[in-house]
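STRUCTURE:
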């Protein structure tokens, strides 16, 4: 367990979900942020640079429209700045106002060091960055950002920060926010992948079957056994608003926290579309 993770779990133990926002702000104001990786996610960078079939790079807009990205629970904004370097107009959203202040400071520091987020090969213009302190489940942040839907949504240490009771709502919201265009992509860096769904958090456990069940039928409760496993996820019929999993990938590199002691990568990356 990462340093500070037990203190985080103790803070959330028995805490009603409506009080989670103030708890996250408390963690940020006390600098207890064991989820921060101090840089962007290697699997996301690798996908964006090596899979043009999944992620055609913004090259001056698509039919006059700039392509957009969202990172909910963005923290210090490392992945937001990465997406901007690939040409996306990127929105970093966090419930904690202190996190957004630190994200802005991170952006200023990056602007003074061009080596941190160099413009990706083939990209002609860095995307705009917008920081919003707000609630993922409310449309208020969309009005503030001036965006209705997103071409890419990147989820890392966000869905795992939500208890199981909120995850059907998370899935419905993801379906709503993801662009219905053929190139719309939800990318999930699954962490802590394989941790039992019945164990305490955050981070609460995730696994591939859970995501498949949730996103196939957004908004619906999913059946779990006593160990937190999801039986028959691959046989669940997808609803009209359900997302389709395009890829389930073992990344070639990831954050240290996603690598077991023997060097095995435990993280998985799943890519979804309408």
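SEQUENCE:
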């Amino acid at each position: 367990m990462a340093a500070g993770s037990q203190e985080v779990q103790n803070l959330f133990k028995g805490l009603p979900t409506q009080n989670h926002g103030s708890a996250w702000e408390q963690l940020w104001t006390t600098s207890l942020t064991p989820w921060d990786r101090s840089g962007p996610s290697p699997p996301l960078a690798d996908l964006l640079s090596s899979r043009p079939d999944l992620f055609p790079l913004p090259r001056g807009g698509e039919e006059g429209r700039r392509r957009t990205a969202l990172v909910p629970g963005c923290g210090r904004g490392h992945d937001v700045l990465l997406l901007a370097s690939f040409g996306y107009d990127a929105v970093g959203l966090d419930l904690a106002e202190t996190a957004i202040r630190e994200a802005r400071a991170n952006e200023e520091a990056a602007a003074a060091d061009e080596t941190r987020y160099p413009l990706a090969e083939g990209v002609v213009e860095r995307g705009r960055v917008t920081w919003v302190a707000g609630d993922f489940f409310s449309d208020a942040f969309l009005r503030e950002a001036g965006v209705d839907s997103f071409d890419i949504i990147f989820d890392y240490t966000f869905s795992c920060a939500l208890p199981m009771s909120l995850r059907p709502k998370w899935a419905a919201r993801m379906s709503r926010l993801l662009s219905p265009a053929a190139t719309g992509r939800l990318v999930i860096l699954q962490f802590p992948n394989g941790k039992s769904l019945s164990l305490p958090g955050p981070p609460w456990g995730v696994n591939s079957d859970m995501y498949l069940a949730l996103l196939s039928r957004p908004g619906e409760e999913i059946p779990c056994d006593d160990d937190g496993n999801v039986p028959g996820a691959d046989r669940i019929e997808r609803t009209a608003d359900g997302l389709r999993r395009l890829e389930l990938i073992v990344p070639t590199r990831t954050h240290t926290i996603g690598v077991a002691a023997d060097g095995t990568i435990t993280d998985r990356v799943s890519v979804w579309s309408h």
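REMARK: The domain at 5-273 is CATH 3.40.50.150 (Rossmann fold).
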